[in-house]
Design goal:
- It is a single chain.
- The chain is mainly alpha-helical and about 500 residues long.
- It has a single domain, classed as MFS general substrate transporter like domains (Growth Hormone, Chain: A, Up-down Bundle).
- It is about 80% helix and about 0% strand.
- The protein is built from 19 helices and no strands.
- Helix 3 packs antiparallel against helix 4 and helix 5 (about 140-175) packs antiparallel against helix 12 (about 325-350).
């Protein structure tokens, strides 16, 4: 059976969806930390805790959304209806997050939590189905790699609009009032977001239809999932407490929770398959899926690497380089290079394979990023050259990650006969958000440890050593750990070809 190749216009339509999503994810959220500390008026430590709590709890809704999307059946498909419904809410909360009410400090913090939670929920309802859509548009792993390249080219272009132009737009619309400048800028980006998402919904098609494997109702399965939530929530709570407080009691709590979770997982795996619910079976399938587990760890590490670098840029240029508007130009340069890196990924993969290219990208980007520590504030050209060179390789990471998630969904279906595309991809967005939450929090925790206070410029000078570490050495550690993890990835080109051929034959015989 010949695999249908996707037309160029459909790949572009799909890519525009991530261009829209990254007006929020890669664009607006890159400035959210500095907006909270320098314009909204939240302390760095309070903003760090906000990032941790909201992003980690939001990961639970990713898993639920993956399950809901997998069990959705409409004439328009499983995933596209959710993209359509969630788009207006994503645009609305994008504006609300960058709106500064004239309230007390406590009420401002409550408002920040409410609007940030609203934004992440809307993003979940939109982006989990969007990510899973890639897994059902084609059965070909080669086409998925190409589609992933288009997707992240779109993502980087979307981020370019916000990250490259936001400082100038804030200055233009605000005329010295940054609060007004941010709000009016988000009106523009919100309108663009909704327009691009509609093109994605109208211009894509769902083709891969897995065999149904359950007769239970969605409501019953969501109730069943709620019984499993403590095994997800408790480890996240323990990690968050240790990360934020870094004390012996929180470390002991983390160890105890890790032991309890390992025991619960082992007990679930040993339970007879006939006694498991659909939710429990989905969990066992995922926990027995070695490629997915490796990608889960890799997604977190690469998001830490990229999230820390992006999260500190606004501070780095404002206080170390001394030119706040230059941050927008730096972001623009990075994202232009990112588009090239994403589109070049397929070229390298055809020659060396995903695993080898991923390892190469992680090591090369780590070495170049570490070199940033030695660059002086006046060496603007060298800052741009090293940053852009590192970003060329870093752009390959999410491109490879999301195409390989489709491979792990294939692996599960090939091995067990069951496929939960939405759940597999929801884990991808989960670790992206978790890594992003920890990355943003780590930036603020490091700055707070140096005494940084966004409302007191005098504290910025003493925080510059922390900014230099966050721009170079600290993120590189996560990239090198990712390279070590990737070496254990089991799916090679031969195995992928075998899985693809057998799965196509199985689906054709049903």
């Amino acid at each position: 059976m010949q695999i249908e190749q996707l037309k160029l216009q459909e790949k572009i339509a799909y890519a525009l969806g991530d261009a829209a999503a990254n007006l929020v994810w890669r664009g607006a959220l890159a400035y959210l930390a500095v907006f909270y500390t320098d314009t909204f008026g939240i302390s760095a430590s309070a903003a760090a805790l906000l990032f941790l709590v909201v992003r980690l709890s939001d990961g639970i809704t990713d898993i639920i959304m993956g399950m809901v999307a997998d069990r959705t059946n409409t004439r328009w498909g499983k995933f596209r209806p959710w993209i359509f419904i969630s788009t207006p809410f994503l645009g609305l909360f994008m504006v609300l997050c960058f709106t500064t009410p004239d309230w007390s400090a406590q009420n401002k913090l409550i408002y920040a939590y409410a609007t940030y939670i609203g934004l992440t929920l809307a993003y979940t309802f939109n982006n989990v189905p969007y990510s899973a859509l890639m897994g059902v548009m084609t059965s070909s792993d080669v086409e998925r790699t190409s589609l992933s390249g288009f997707r992240f080219a779109g993502a980087f272009l979307g981020g370019l609009f916000v990250m490259g132009f936001l400082p100038d737009m804030v200055a233009y619309f605000g005329s010295g009032n940054d609060a007004i400048g941010y709000q009016y800028s988000m009106y523009v980006f919100s309108a663009l977001l909704m327009f691009l998402m509609l093109i994605t919904v109208a211009g894509t098609k769902e083709r891969v239809v897995p065999v149904a494997s359950t007769d239970s109702s969605l409501s019953r399965e969501v109730i069943d999932l709620s019984k499993q939530l403590p095994f997800i929530l408790l480890p996240l709570l323990a990690i968050t407490l240790f990360f934020y407080y870094r004390s012996l009691p929180t470390f002991v709590f983390l160890v105890l929770i890790a032991a309890f979770t390992a025991f619960a997982i082992k007990r679930l795996k040993n339970q007879p398959e006939s006694e498991r619910s659909r939710v429990q079976q989905d969990m066992v399938d995922l926990l027995s899926n070695k490629p997915w587990l490796i990608l889960l760890a890799l997604g977190f590490l690469t998001m830490m690497f990229n999230g820390i670098k992006y999260g500190v840029v606004a501070y780095y240029f404002k206080y170390y380089v001394g030119d706040e508007l230059l941050a927008g130009k730096y972001f623009a340069a990075l994202l232009i290079v990112s588009v090239i890196g994403a589109l070049c990924t397929e070229f390298f993969v055809k020659r060396w394979g995903r695993k080898q290219v991923f390892i190469m990208a992680l090591i090369a980007s780590a070495v170049l990023t570490t070199s940033m520590y030695l660059v002086g504030a006046e060496q603007i050209s060298l800052i741009f050259i090293l940053g852009c060179s590192a970003e060329f390789f870093a752009a390959m990471m999410p491109t490879l990650f999301f195409s390989m998630l489709g491979d792990s969904a294939d692996y599960s279906e090939w091995r067990t006969g069951r496929r939960a595309t939405g759940l597999v991809y929801s884990a991808g967005t989960f670790v992206q958000k978790t890594g992003g939450g920890f990355a943003g929090a780590l930036v603020l925790v490091v700055l707070a440890s140096y005494g940084y206070n966004g409302m007191d410029v005098n504290t910025a000078v003493q925080s510059i050593p922390g900014m230099l570490l966050l721009m170079s050495v600290i993120p590189s550690v996560f990239a090198l750990l990712g390279a070590a993890v990737m070496m254990a990835y089991p799916i090679n080109n031969q195995m992928q070809a075998t899985m693809t051929t057998e799965l196509i034959a199985r689906r054709a015989s049903v």
